From TrEMBL:
Protein's UniProt name: UDP-glucose 6-dehydrogenase
The organism's place on the tree of life at top rank: Bacteria
KW Ribosomal protein (keyword) present: no
The protein's annotated pathway: Nucleotide-sugar biosynthesis; UDP-alpha-D-glucuronate biosynthesis; UDP-alpha-D-glucuronate from UDP-alpha-D-glucose: step 1/1
Organism annotation: Natronosporangium hydrolyticum
GO BP term, example: polysaccharide biosynthetic process
One Gene Ontology MF term: UDP-glucose 6-dehydrogenase activity
Transferase keyword on record: no
Cited PANTHER family: UDP-GLUCOSE 6-DEHYDROGENASE TUAD (PTHR43750:SF3)
List of catalytic residues: 266
Amino acid sequence: MSPYITVIGTGYLGATHAACMAELGFRVLGVDVDQQKLAKLAAGELPFYEPELAELVARHVASGRLSFTDSYEHAAEVGDVHFLCVGTPQQPNTDGADLSYLNAAADRLAPGLQRPCLVVGKSTVPVGTADALTRRIQAAAPAGTGVEVAWNPEFLREGYAVADTLAPDRLVFGVQSPGGERALRDVYASLLAEGTPVVTTDVRTAELIKASANSFLATKISFINAIAELCEAAGADVVKLAEALRYDPRIGDRFLSPGVGFGGGCLPKDIRALLARANELGVGSALRFLDDADRTNLRARRRVVDLARQECGGSFAGRRVGVLGAAFKPNSDDIRDSPALAVAAAIQAAGAEIAVYDPQANDNARKHFPTMDIALSAVDAARGAHVLLHLTEWPEFAGADPAEFAAVAAERRIVDGRNTLDPARWQAAGWRFRAPGRPQLDALNPEEVNP
Ligand SMILES: NC(=O)C1=CN([C@@H]2O[C@H](COP(=O)(O)OP(=O)(O)OC[C@H]3O[C@@H](n4cnc5c(N)ncnc54)[C@H](O)[C@@H]3O)[C@@H](O)[C@H]2O)C=CC1
Ligand SMILES: O=C(O)[C@H]1O[C@H](OP(=O)(O)OP(=O)(O)OC[C@H]2O[C@@H](n3ccc(=O)[nH]c3=O)[C@H](O)[C@@H]2O)[C@H](O)[C@@H](O)[C@@H]1O
């Protein structure tokens, strides 16, 4: 009989995993402590924006294959495989990961376990967490239960979460016995049958694979942003430079987009957590470049603020700035550590009036930045603006007509913090165009538009 799956923590990762496990044919029970989130999910609604996921949740809740609860007792009773998907945010006062949610979940699940089962960590954790959690769960589970712990890190990207879960680049099984591997192979049998590569290893290596993957991606982005700074100083063009680098398959064609840098609930916290753990293990000096990657990333935000200040004539006082984008990346409503909102907040603190627009993240931005003016459209954000900032590369911004913005802006000056707009289109519509790592471009025919 196919295993009954529980997914503990139904946020961006857990809700996706639960719905995708149901899509693979399993009965799935999602567990959370957030009653509002549970109520929405139980009604077949998604409490956040993620393409394709709402339809999957609705369909599988309606079919009865996917349900939700706050009862750990029920989860412990029915589950054969329990996936742990709770958050592991940065601790408030250190760079290390906060494991309190994971420990709380384990403490609530373990006492109710009554028969052999597999507890599978999916959250991103410091190396050594699985070992500690194994001891914690085995000590709290009733004697002789036969509970085992495995680590199966997740590599999905927000915005592509469903596709990445149902067709992953690879699966990683960190296991402590052949039985643990067999159970994971059963769960992922259909993906393995399609040829998904799998790396089976010990739990410590599995934990480090995940932290290394995110750290490599973050370092790659900071590399190109450091080169962008050099390009700016030298009068070179980082977009052309990156285009040329991408043709080299050894470098690869992704994660080389220069701009305002990386954000989100994962890359920033994960590089800090990896370095913090390396320091604990006495090898921090080997990974010091992660600190540089972090600093370069934060400097990329400040450099966009500086470009905006220059375009405001050296001071934000009495100026109005329109911001296109609030989410940390397009196709998501997630604003955790969003570069767009960090830049907007810094500019507001420096004295400008700010209007922000995002196609999906307006509600989250309003909730977390109540003093910011949240516009109802991209053009509204530009109304009366002395400078317009493009900070999240939603397709609707790349496709927008610069003349429509010119008609409402106070001045035609744009900073493309993502380097994805077509400078020629904006210049032709009378805009002065600035972007990190690129030569400044003055407006062509400024008198032809909005004279
Ligand atoms: N968001 C993403 O794209 C990915 C996230 N990850 C990792 O997955 C983990 C979760 O991340 P997100 O889903 O983004 O976080 P999130 O904050 O969206 O979701 C965490 C969920 O856990 C729930 N929770 C907290 N304590 C709980 C408890 N004791 N019992 C049950 N539920 C509890 C929260 O209410 C929330 O719904 C993190 O370790 C993250 O690094 C890994 C890959 C992708
Ligand atoms: O552990 C996680 O949670 C996930 O973190 C990232 O996924 P995600 O945060 O959803 O988004 P990315 O596509 O990686 O983008 C992260 C940030 O980097 C920025 N970025 C990305 C690429 C690039 O070239 N330049 C750049 O600035 C994005 O705008 C965004 O702010 C990883 O890509 C996933 O593999 C991983 O599972």
